[in-house]
């Protein structure tokens, strides 16, 4: 289909539809990108941030294991020893729950978590030995064991713990930075698509108006000026078009034909008047000749 065969309203609709299509595409792209960003931030909150919380809780329980290990070695009362022993077991159980949750949220660091667990279990095993010594009323030996082996084991576990926590926090920071970069790039992409849509729709609109409306109207205007100046030889462009410009061109063609018909009728009328005048002059000459002949005959008869 040629551009000349499309009406003006569909041309304008096409320019608007082009802008709408680009805006829709930008919306779809933004929605997909933002969904990915949202999923990423949700994962960051649901996994890394939760893992940091679980590790922090496990670290507190690790400190509690060390504290209870020293306390149980210092107790001499059996009831208090049993109470501290229960607190030691509770701290150890809560530590295991927190680390299991962290391991679930950080499958990529399971080996690191296992390494920390192994060291913590060594420290707990020493605390358990201290408990057995305390229950056998050998608390002083238990405290000595805790200072000699338990404290270094706890320090080693805490060192591994600190390194693991720092790595998790660094991973979370890197992922947050990456998601921020994706967010910024998405904003730039959507802005670019919208700007491109505005530019393309503007260019398309100007092209359609210039090619489909302005230039043909200017040509028809120039044709009408020449017709008004009695230039009936002017060629009318656009009669074959199927849009409003074609309607105007055909209307101008009718005006031109009417002007041609009027000039022809005026020429025919002028020719008729000239023929009648010539006939009347011939008639008058004939009548004058007859009068003169009659007068001559009458004069001859009178002589």
The largest β sheet comes out as: none
Helix content: over 70%
Global structural class: mainly alpha
Radius of gyration: 54 Å
Overall geometry? rod-shaped
Beta strands, count: 0
- How far the N terminus sits from the C terminus, by CA atoms, comes to 98 Å
**Which consecutive residue ranges, at least 5 long each, have pLDDT under 50?**
none
Helix and strand element order: HHHHH
Mean pLDDT: 80
How much of the sequence lies in strands comes to under 5%
The number of helical runs is 5
Overview of the structural elements:
With 303 residues, the chain is mostly helical. 89% of the residues lie in helices and 0% in strands. It contains five helices and no strands. It has helices spanning 8-74, 78-105, 110-135, 139-228, 244-302. Helix 3 (110-135) packs antiparallel against helix 4 (139-228). The longest helix is centred in the middle third of the chain and has 90 residues, at 139-228. The radius of gyration is 54 Å and the shape is rod-shaped. The chain starts with 7 loop residues before the first helix and ends with a helix. The model has no long low-confidence stretch (mean pLDDT 80).
Relevant terms:
303 residues; mainly alpha; 0% strand; rod-shaped
């Amino acid at each position: 289909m040629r551009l000349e065969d499309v009406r003006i309203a569909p041309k304008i609709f096409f320019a608007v539809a082009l802008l709408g299509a680009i805006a829709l595409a930008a919306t779809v792209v933004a929605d997909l990108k933002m969904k990915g960003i949202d999923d990423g931030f949700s994962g960051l909150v649901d996994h890394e941030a939760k893992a940091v919380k679980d590790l922090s809780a496990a670290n507190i329980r690790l400190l509690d294991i060390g504290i209870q290990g020293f306390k149980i070695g210092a107790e001499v009362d059996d009831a208090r020893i049993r109470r501290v022993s229960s607190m030691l077991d509770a701290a150890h159980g809560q530590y295991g729950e927190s680390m299991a949750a962290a391991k679930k949220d950080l499958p990529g660091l399971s080996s690191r978590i296992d390494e920390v667990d192994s060291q913590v279990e060594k420290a707990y095993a020493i605390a358990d030995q201290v408990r057995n010594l305390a229950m056998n009323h050998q608390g002083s030996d238990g405290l000595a064991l805790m200072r000699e082996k338990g404290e270094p084991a706890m320090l080693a576990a805490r060192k591994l713990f600190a390194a693991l926590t720092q790595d998790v926090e660094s991973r979370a920071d890197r992922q947050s930075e990456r998601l921020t970069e994706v967010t910024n790039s998405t904003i730039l992409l959507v802005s670019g698509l919208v700007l491109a849509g505005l530019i393309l729709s503007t260019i398309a609109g100007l092209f359609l108006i210039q090619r489909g409306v302005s230039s043909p109207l200017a040509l028809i205007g120039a044709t009408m000026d020449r017709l008004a100046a009695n230039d009936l030889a002017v060629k009318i462009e656009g009669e074959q078009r199927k849009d409003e410009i074609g309607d105007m061109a055909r209307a101008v063609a009718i005006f031109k034909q009417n002007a041609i018909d009027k000039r022809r009728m005026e020429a025919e009328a002028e020719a008729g008047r000239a023929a009648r005048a010539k006939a009347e002059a011939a008639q008058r000459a004939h009548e004058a000749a007859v009068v003169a002949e009659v007068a001559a005959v009458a004069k001859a008869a009178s002589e």
